[in-house]
Design a protein that fits this description.
UDP-N-acetylmuramoyl-L-alanine:D-glutamate ligase, 17 helices, Mur_ligase_C, UDP-N-acetylmuramoylalanine--D-glutamate ligase, nucleotide-binding, six-stranded mixed β-sheet, Mur_ligase_cen, six-stranded parallel β-sheet, UDP-N-acetylmuramoylalanine-D-glutamate ligase activity, 20 strands
């Protein structure tokens, strides 16, 4: 059996490793250049690959093709494969075949990352062996190959869901649906909505669909389409027969038995959208038999709060992210890993003996420019001057943001993730984060 993997990013390389482990003859093809870290993995695993080209003769005889979520279905090569009856699937579909472990699948236009991280946090905190994957963290296929987890929490984009055939999460969450990626869906919102609902298409009566009851788009779809899974809505405005709702500012989880979880005032994440994310995560944890006091504790101490990968504003198509809490290389690694677009990285401060080499592969792959925000920046300049063409030194948050604004183009991300302490120019990381946010808002 021949498996061809189109796209040698996180999901592609993970699929190649799992495919080889399961006895497939594997070939990887990427139309662009393959990032160094992924090329090394392919070489170390003796997996043949090509880059900067798709050689049709090497692809067309595949039994299964896993295509990267970034490749649209309408591409001529994909159309030809489908016409020939070749199974074209997503990483999620391919990898799910090789695990019997329970899966929580989370999709939505917004909030899916936070909900995924929250759910992962709730389950890990009570000692469950959880793998977090999909659009976040290491690839799902790679984790299935490693077989270290008893349960998977997957953040799923519509693109990943488009490539499923049999995939069925035990618990599915739809956080909300608003128009997004319509260029991939013939500019028809209904196509995009249907894509999101593919998350529940293979669920059975033993499975659950958790969704935002306040979202009219979701309610309308459910009123016109039959779903086998048990429906568990969450709402900020309605008292529900079953699901999650608010009563006197307390989150109430109601399924079979009723449990008050906590006051929304003590949630680590503020804002209505985050209350909804917390509701979805709480319902999931409750279904997986996590006790309500553990859920409450986890929702109170979740680290996804202010200054941790906090989306500040989108200006001229550029997303500004405040990750001032990243005072070490490890935290910055997580931030850079989570960003999916070309990045202007604002970094620096009081170096605590950082080894920047750990970030090298991510910087190579994602960072188009570095803006130094510190008194002493030489170590950063020495570490990255060979891989990043543009490095600018600045002496404060306002100047750093103005420089980043000039460099960034539509579709880019400006990420403040300093990897250093803040005491040279700021009182603390909160002060640094607030000054960054104020400077962004002043643009």
């Amino acid at each position: 059996m021949k498996l061809v993997v189109l796209g040698a990013g996180e999901s592609g390389v993970g699929t190649a490793i799992l495919g080889k482990q399961k006895g497939y003859e594997v070939f990887v093809s990427d139309k662009g250049a393959i990032a160094e870290k992924y090329r090394e993995v392919l070489l170390n695993n003796n997996i043949p690959f090509e880059e900067k080209i798709h050689t049709e003769s090497k692809i067309i005889d595949a039994d299964v093709v896993m295509k990267s979520p970034g490749i649209p279905d309408k591409v001529a090569l994909i159309q030809k494969l489908v016409k020939q009856g070749v199974s074209v699937v997503s990483e999620i579909e391919f990898a799910a075949e090789y695990t019997n472990n329970q899966i929580v699948g989370i999709t939505g236009s917004n909030g899916k990352t936070t909900t995924t991280m929250l759910t992962n946090h709730l389950l890990k905190k009570v000692g469950l062996n959880v793998g977090m994957a999909g659009n976040i963290g290491d690839s799902f296929a790679q984790q299935v190959a490693d077989a270290n987890s008893d349960l998977y929490v997957l953040e799923l984009s519509s693109f990943q869901l488009d490539g499923i055939v049999k995939f069925a999460p035990h618990i599915a969450i739809i956080t909300n649906i608003t128009p997004d990626h319509l260029d991939r869906y013939e500019y028809k919102f209904e196509n995009y909505i249907n894509s999101k609902f593919r998350i529940t298409k293979n669920q059975t009566e033993k499975d659950y669909l958790i969704y935002d009851y306040d979202d009219e788009v979701i309610r309308d779809w459910l009123s016109e389409n039959k779903v086998k899974a048990t429906l568990l809505p969450f709402s900020l405005v309605e008292k529900l027969d079953q699901g999650v709702y608010l009563e006197d500012n307390n989150i109430v989880v109601k399924y079979k038995t009723e449990e008050k979880i906590m006051s929304i005032k003590t949630l680590a994440l503020k804002g209505k959208h985050n209350t909804k994310n917390a509701m979805a995560a709480a319902m999931t944890a409750s279904l997986l038999k996590v006790r309500s006091n553990s859920i409450r504790e986890s929702l109170e101490d979740f680290e996804g709060a202010e200054h941790r990968l906090e989306n500040v504003l989108k200006i001229n198509g550029v997303q500004y992210i405040n990750d001032s809490k990243a005072t070490n290389v490890n935290a910055t690694f997580y931030a850079l890993e989570s960003v999916k677009t070309p990045t202007v990285w604002i970094v620096g401060g009081v170096d605590k003996g950082n080894d920047y080499l750990e970030l090298m592969s991510l910087v190579r792959e994602k960072v188009k420019a570095i803006v130094c925000l510190g008194v002493e920046n030489q170590k950063i300049i020495n570490a990255f001057s060979n891989v990043v063409d543009l490095i600018v030194e600045t002496a404060g948050a306002e100047e750093a943001v103005k420089v980043a604004y000039k460099i960034a183009e539509k579709g880019d991300t400006v990420l403040l993730s300093p990897a250093c302490a803040s005491f040279d120019l700021f009182e603390n990381y909160e002060d640094r984060g607030r000054k960054f946010k104020n400077a962004v808002r002043a643009l």
